[in-house]
Amino acid sequence: MQTYILFDIGGTKTRVAVSTDLQSFKVEKFDTPASYAEGIAAITEAVRTLNPATPITLVAGGIRGELNATKTELVSEKILTDWVDKPLAKDLEAAFVAPILLRNDAEVAALGEASFGAGRGYSRISYHTVSTGVGGALVSEGKVIATHNDLVGGPHTIEDQISGTALEQQRGMKPYEIPQSDPVWNVLAEKLAHALVNVVTAWSPDAIVLGGSMIVGDPRILLADITRHTTELLPEGVACPAIVDASLKDEAGLYGAMAVLATLEQSTNQMKGTWTNGLFRYIAGFFK
User: What PANTHER family does this protein's entry cite (predicted)?
Assistant: First the structure.
């Protein structure tokens, strides 16, 4: 029996799961520690609680922030500052004695929604999460071909305007403490729409999938307002694609990791004898 560890390390919450069939998983969720050492310990303890069968075949998942060229550690991050320049991939490999795939959390979540969630049935979707931070990616035919940073020119341009962190700094209260009737939610919808106009004109997605607590939470940036503003802002003659709520909520990253591994499972017979090197060459093809 194969055993896979899936993870999603966000600015507020971390989710760790175990799957044996790559169709379902058991999950543990906890607050992401500010301390890197405490974070590694918490991930290890969560896996111990899930009691997976050993040996573990592969570990895969995402973390918010900018990764280095080899996708082994964070090099830039505004919230998990103590996690920057720490050997994340190496430490997880040592903890679970298995190869690890590490990517940006929004990229992995995009694959999750494309494969298991609201993006199913579309060949080309743009996924964006608005939560503690903001991120996203373009998925075409099951592969990430562009990222949020490619589009906006940096990780923090739109994040500083519409993220939950930005709203809390502006208003001095948690987003969930601001009533839905407050005009700020419509203001945020319009700001997000300006970004989505860039998405539509640059990426031409069949559908835009929006997730994160600022989108699917309560209160929230309303989908009707986002669609209305985006439609009004698009150039004449450019149609607004379907804009839909993400359906996997806070587990999209786990589903994304599972999606990559499920496809890998179908191809393992072609990779016998070249497991480690072939594995990473194969998985790298899911990301730009």
Answer: BIFUNCTIONAL UDP-N-ACETYLGLUCOSAMINE 2-EPIMERASE_N-ACETYLMANNOSAMINE KINASE, ROK (REPRESSOR, ORF, KINASE) FAMILY
**Longest Cα pair distance anywhere in the chain, in angstroms?**
60
Class of domain 118-247: alpha beta
Beta bridge partners of 138: 126, 146
Asked if 137 and 125 count as a contact pair (C-beta separation under 8 A), the reply is no
Mean pLDDT of the chain: 90
Tell me the C-alpha distance between 11 and 32, whole Å. Answer: 7
Cα distance between residue 166 and residue 159, in whole Å: 7
4-104+251-284: what fold? Nucleotidyltransferase; domain 5 (3.30.420)
Residue 137 identity (one-letter amino acid): A
The amino acid sitting at 164 is: G
CA distance 90 to 68: 13
Q: What are the Cα distances from residue 286, in Å, to 3, 73, 145? A: 21, 19, 8
Question: What value does the mean pLDDT take over residues 254-263?
Answer: 91
Between residues 277 and 226, which one has the greater pLDDT?
Answer: 226
Q: What is the pLDDT of residues 180-205, one digit of tens each?
A: 999 999 999 999 999 999 999 999 99
For CATH 3.30.420.40, the residue range(s) in the chain are 4-104+251-284, 118-247
Count of other CB atoms within 10 angstroms of residue 99: 18
Q: Tell me which residue of 45, 77, 41, 82 sits closest to 62, measured CA to CA.
A: 77
Q: Is the peptide bond before 55 cis (omega within 30 degrees of 0)?
A: yes
